[in-house]
């Protein structure tokens, strides 16, 4: 009986070692939470997982090399960390782009709005039911298209959410001038609506 249990145990250990070798799995660093560009990485920002990873991701053994360095771009919780995403300074926003923060009232954006979504920012209605701002032809201003880089929940049930959107620098003034901005989620680039 003991010989059978020993054989099973040896087989299980052997199988695990072979599966690990064949699977190419290694411990790598993953973001434990969302990290904005410019944030200095701390131990609480990272966790390690065992995955079959491609070259370029940071090994868990290199944790000490990345702690204390800045995120060059916004990093999303659950994503694998790559060396190109961290450095001595933030490279975000990229040249020609800017972030604009908007105070979005209740009902002005989908409740599940999240970082990374492609959106259109539209002017909301003014108190008289029209638009607070019109172009030279008397039409409502055009939407500003961008990508959500942050969503801060309201402090109260009737409060506003602060939504930060990455937009082309030339559109910042227009987006920031919308009195009661509305946010519409657009299909991801390359995907059509069902």
Strand order of the largest sheet: 5-8-7-6-9
Tally of alpha and pi helices: 3
In total, how many beta strands? 9
What count of structural domains? 2
Taking pLDDT < 50 over at least 5 consecutive residues as the criterion, the unreliable ranges are 1-20
Describe what this molecule looks like in 3D.
It is a single chain. The protein is α+β, with helices and mostly antiparallel strands and 194 residues long. It has two domains: 2-87, Type Iii Antifreeze Protein Isoform Hplc 12; 97-185, no CATH class. Helix content is 16%, strand content 27%. The chain has three helices and nine strands, in the order αββαββββββαβ. It has helices at 2-23, 63-66, 172-177, and strands spanning 25-31, 46-52, 70-71, 86-87, 97-104, 118-122, 144-152, 161-168, 182-185. A five-stranded antiparallel β-sheet has the order 5-8-7-6-9. The model is unreliable at 1-20 (pLDDT under 50).
């Amino acid at each position: 009986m003991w010989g059978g249990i020993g054989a099973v145990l040896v087989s299980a250990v052997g199988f695990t070692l072979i599966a690990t070798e064949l699977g190419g799995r290694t411990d790598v660093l993953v973001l434990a939470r969302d990290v904005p560009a410019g944030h200095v990485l701390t131990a609480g920002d990272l966790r390690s997982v065992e995955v079959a990873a491609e070259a370029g991701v940071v090994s868990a053994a290199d944790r000490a090399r990345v702690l204390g360095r800045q995120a060059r771009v916004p990093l999303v919780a659950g994503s694998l960390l790559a060396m190109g995403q961290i450095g001595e300074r933030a490279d975000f926003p990229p040249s020609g782009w800017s972030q604009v923060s908007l105070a979005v009232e209740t009902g002005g954006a989908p409740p599940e709005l999240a970082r990374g979504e492609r959106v259109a920012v539209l002017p909301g209605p003014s108190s008289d039911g029209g638009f607070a701002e019109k172009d030279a032809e008397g039409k409502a201003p055009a939407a500003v298209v961008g990508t959500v880089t942050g969503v801060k929940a309201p402090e109260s049930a009737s409060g506003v959410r602060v939504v930060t959107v990455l937009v082309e620098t030339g559109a910042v003034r227009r987006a920031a001038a919308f009195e009661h901005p509305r946010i519409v989620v657009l299909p991801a680039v390359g995907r059509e609506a069902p």
